[in-house]
Known about the structure:
- By secondary structure, this protein is mainly α.
- About 70% of the residues lie in helices and about 0% in strands.
Amino acid sequence: MKIISVLIRAGISLTIAFAISFSSAVIYFDYTGYKNTIDRFMLVTIPTLAMGFLLFQAIPTIWHWLKPRKINYLIVFAIFSTIAAIVTVLPAGTSRVYLMATFSYGLALLAITLPAIPALERLSRQQHTVRRYFVGFLLSFLILYLLIGFMIGAIYDRFHFMAISTLSMMICNICAYYFIRHFARSQKIKHPLNRIIVFALPLFAAIIFLLVSQFPVMFSPAFFQIPSSMMDTFVSCTIVGGAWGILLLEQIEKRGIYQKCKNTKLFSAIKENSLGIYVSIVFFFINLFLARTFNQTTFSFNSIIFEADAGPWYAILGLPEGFNVNRAVHPLTLITIRPFVRFFGLFMRDSWFLAPLIGVSLTNAFAIFMSWVFIKRATNNETHALLFSALLGATASHLLFGSLTETYVFGMASLIFFLLLLQADEKRFAVLVPAGLLVFGITVTNIAQSMIAMFFKKIGFWRLIYYGVLVLTIGITLTAFVNMLFPGNQSSFWVPEDILFEAQFSTGSEAGVKASLIERSQIVTRTMFLYSVLAPTPVQTIRGRGTEGEIVNFKTYHYKDKIVAWYDGLAKIPLVLWIAILITSVFLFFKNIRTDENTPLLYGILGGIAFNFFLHMNYGTELFLYTPYFTFLVVFFVALSLKPLTDKLWFETGVSVLIFMVFINNFKLIHTILSALSPYLSGN
């Protein structure tokens, strides 16, 4: 019996060793290149005997180790190893040699991942759900596939790629596991509307991806795909990373690292705002898909999409050698948002053009998260915060300008951050002045919004004046510093000639005519309260006639021909619903004006809306361009005013329906823009 056992053991060892040795010799070691039979024989036999001996010695230990293991875990690991082996080997060939190589590769991968099984068994006995870790693995795989595919041009070589894939999967899988576990145990996800929004948002992201994929001249799915030549390595490394992540997870639990982290303020903040983090992550990908589509370095004209200067700002923010700003109203962008964007450029190698796309998408995602925090603080209701932060992200303004390489998304985020500080009763100038400088440095006029909000928070009249003087004087000093640091790249907002450049966008010539004032006020009102949230069918004109070539130009108001954008067909349904919500919010604001604890904030928000209204009565030829600076104010006003309706299912259902309709309507805007621009790009 013992002899039979030894023979079986030897047979298994030699079979496995031969499969590995022969397939490797044919595929990697130029087996057919050797003419002599003895050379081929030795090339295969010697490694077979060496590996066979090692396997023969190891089989008793392996068998002893395998016997107490749970069979279902072994099967799952074997399935994943087989999948990786099939993806890696079979695309190269399907002959018997490649089938042997598939078996060998799968066995090797299984051997690398098997040490994680005991840790998995121990974790499962400690109330850790294996299913959640598996779901976390699938989510992490998808996220890393998109992100690494997006940045593939910045990865040095295969070993660099392997290290990034493996380590990223270990970290991402563990984070995803804790995130899923928190959601599963939390009461917040058990609310039916929360579940609907949570599951609907990735669906919206997928629809956006499919939508932009219909225009291959502007977007290719390959922008977010792992190249086929690297896919085998990615699958293998992520499987190994997921398995090794189990070992790391056990150490995190065993050494009490998780328990220690639970007591930190950062962990508590993440836990309390997990829904907001989730929403912002999904919108990051939505805006990144759109950013990769809209921002084209081949455009020969700027200001074609609602007069946005995406082309120059793409270069200003991303080009390693820099680019001229020379806009006095953006005095500190070269030392604020450009360093932020160029930080991502450090990891992009020659793919500098990816850094601005990450910068704008990440900033908009952070703005969505801050909106969640702001509304949650004000209403103390997570479902309300989820609904209106999702609505803000779905607005035409945020979908478009959260994706274009312009200054607006950065200015908007700085304003929301400033409001968050005031909401938290922050009064220290050591905090407010730097935050105000950021607001002022991106766009000088936005300082008015911050000061209006401070005024209604009753910070004190003389302190408010002192704050304004500090921001202005420090802003002047820093702008002079920027002029010295980047000679000829930045104009000065206190020099009349420089600031008067902005006069070309003024409508002051019509201000004295009553009819023009009425018409202008209607345009401003529509833009602020309707267009910013729910995109109309844009006005399309042709620009660049003659030798320059023609390209379509998008507007919401063509001031020369007095053509106004409006809503067609089914778009009128969400329009009516949104107007009804606006009217209800105004009614509830006046009804609760004396009792609402958020009244000072609401006054500040209304002051910001009023400032933007009067500013754009005289400034701006295409007002949709400036919507990021007041869309969040409109949404915040509605969200805070409707606080008495929180926890009313009929109201929350209505807002959910509106979000779906807004998404669908604004998808149409994106489709319209891409349909019109694609022929131009295909001709270049």
